[in-house]
Specification:
It contains 14 helices and 15 strands. It is an alpha/beta fold and about 400 residues long. The strands form four sheets. Strands 2-10-9-8-7-3-4 form a seven-stranded mixed beta sheet, with helices on both faces. It has a four-stranded antiparallel beta sheet with strand order 11-12-15-14. A two-stranded parallel sheet has the order 1-13. α2 packs across α11 and α12 packs parallel to α14.
């Protein structure tokens, strides 16, 4: 089975409204989507009404290209509370989610065939966006502390010997997808230094920062770098609702200016202007903080149900308990590969994404798999863990 076909092992019916709907009794742990019970429908209705009352036709017209002031103002303060630095005036841009932010950065700041370094495993759909441009992706090894910055330095050197240099690095250093691991602080500093020394942009995908369950999230790479080499992508998808298609990026003012002056924002104005004003109403009245506090508790309970279910069925299961994010990264017992086990898992009523999906070139771990704990309530996750543990136990005995 080729890598591209892995995720399509089961037929997913196309729904006229949603990207994914449940169509069988299979507990589908492949999707990094929030459960429908985690989405604040009533509060959003109120916020939408308020936005229309407050801004009238201005809510429905073309918006300022960097995004409307109410959400920018709220974000400036808010980011200062969830990270070690607040963006200054001009350092924020509203996006239609981290995906669109990444696409815009690739469009405006890279040339086709530029090289981008990407620690693997990584978010497979970000790879797809980069390949659209098309960028040349050079994989970098990771270990238990996250991306190996020594391997990155070697890769930069190898490229330099060929007269090339990487244009950027794409990294998810905080509760990353798919592993939920975070890059240790020293390596964050090493990375800033490497980027400064080789005139390389750091694209920091930071969408899981606020979904922290045990400790506190480490400071972003963006907050550590003063040279302006980092673009940090944030999103309301994981904290509020992905259907808003609303995100933001922080970067120095000249980068923000450049991104905002491109054809897309010049022609259409700021992206998702109405959604941004609705989110600002939601946030301004304390709704966002209330919601995220509640959401963290819900997701921590889901994480715990999945962890307990796995350990109950497989006491020797090898994984790190995720301290943030959406995912659990499980290593299979010796001799098993996630790809081969998957059809049996599906017939037993549980599905997952094989680790291979998140690999790049030779950096592929075929004995790993990703389980998402965002979509289902704790009882279903416990049942999914039971089915998966049973499948694994039966396959080794
Ligand atoms: C690391 C990472 N970046 C970006 C996204 C997509 O974010 P958005 O909905 O803001 O485009 C996801 C969603 O799964 C993700 O895991």
């Amino acid at each position: 089975v080729s890598r591209g076909r892995v995720a399509k092992l089961r037929t997913v019916l196309t729904d006229p409204i949603l990207e994914f709907v449940e169509t069988s009794d299979v507990i589908d742990l492949t999707w990094g989507h929030p459960g429908p019970d985690l989405l604040p429908v009533a509060e959003m209705r109120t916020a939408a009404n308020q936005a229309l009352d407050m801004y009238g036709p201005d809510a429905l017209n073309y918006g300022a290209s960097v995004g409307p002031a109410p959400i920018l103002q709220w974000l400036r303060t808010h980011i200062g509370t969830i990270d070690s630095r607040a963006p200054a005036d001009g350092e924020l841009l509203i996006t239609a989610g981290a995906s669109q932010g990444l696409d815009l950065v690739c469009t405006m700041l890279t040339e086709p065939a530029d090289t981008i370094l990407v620690p693997a495993p990584t978010y497979h759909l970000a790879l797809k966006i980069m390949r659209d441009h098309p960028l040349r992706i050079v994989p970098i090894e990771t270990d238990a502390h996250g991306a190996r910055t020594d391997a990155m330095a070697d890769a930069i050197l190898r490229l330099r010997r060929r007269g090339e240099r990487p244009r950027a690095v794409y990294i998810i250093p905080t509760f990353g997808n798919p592993t939920s691991l975070s890059l240790i602080e020293q390596r964050r500093r090493d990375l800033v230094e490497l980027a400064a020394g080789s005139d390389m942009l750091i694209i920091e995908d930071d969408v899981y920062r606020e979904l922290v369950y045990d400790d506190v999230a480490p400071p972003s790479i963006w907050s550590m770098a003063d040279a302006g080499s980092v673009i940090r992508l944030g999103s309301f998808s994981k904290t509020l609702s992905p259907g808003l298609r609303l995100g933001f990026l922080t970067a120095n003012a000249s980068i923000v200016d450049r991104l905002a002056s491109g054809g897309l924002l010049d022609s259409g104005g700021g992206v998702n202007h109405f959604a941004a004003l609705v989110a600002a109403r939601f946030a301004d009245q304390g709704g966002y903080l209330r919601h995220v506090t509640w959401l963290r508790a819900q997701l921590a309970t889901r994480r715990d149900a999945l962890v307990a279910g796995l350990l109950g069925g497989l006491p020797d299961a090898v994984f790190d308990r995720p301290s943030g994010g959406y995912f659990l990264w499980l290593r299979l017992p010796p001799g098993l590969t996630a790809q081969k086990l998957r059809p049996l898992a599906v017939t037993r009523g549980v599905d997952y994404l094989p680790g291979e999906v998140f690999g790049i070139d030779e950096i592929v771990e075929d004995d790993t798999l990703r389980l998402s704990f965002s979509l289902y309530p704790p009882e279903r996750l416990a049942e999914g863990a039971r089915r998966l543990s049973q499948t694994i136990s039966d396959s080794i005995s």
